[in-house]
Amino acid sequence: MKSLTIKIDLDEPYSSVNLKIRHTLAETIEERNIGEVWNQGMGENYMDVSLDIVPSEEKEQEIKSILQSLNLLEKAEFIYE
Predict the structure, then answer these.
(1) How many CB atoms lie within 10 A of CB 55?
(2) What's the CATH number for 2-80?
(3) Residue ranges of the domains in the chain?
(4) Residue environment code for 21-34, b if the CB has 16+ CB neighbours within 10 A, otherwise e
(5) Structure confidence by residue, pLDDT tens digits, 13-64
(6) Would you call 13 helix, strand, or coil by DSSP?
């Protein structure tokens, strides 16, 4: 099991729309049993979601698919610890 942080650069500062999108991302990851989300954060020009995950190409592709559906894939960075 590893810790994964998905950091997403934002074009604008914090907004309620971004908060809803971050919540949708975290909820969808858990609903699909991809990993267990343990933190959600937001800075001035970014948001992130941290989760525990058993890394696999399949799970990473599922996350990328979710990010694509939220129009965030191009702005996302995967940081494994």
Answers:
(1) 13
(2) 3.30.70.1430
(3) 2-80
(4) bbeebbebbeeeeb
(5) 778 889 999 999 999 999 999 999 999 999 889 999 999 999 999 999 999 9
(6) coil
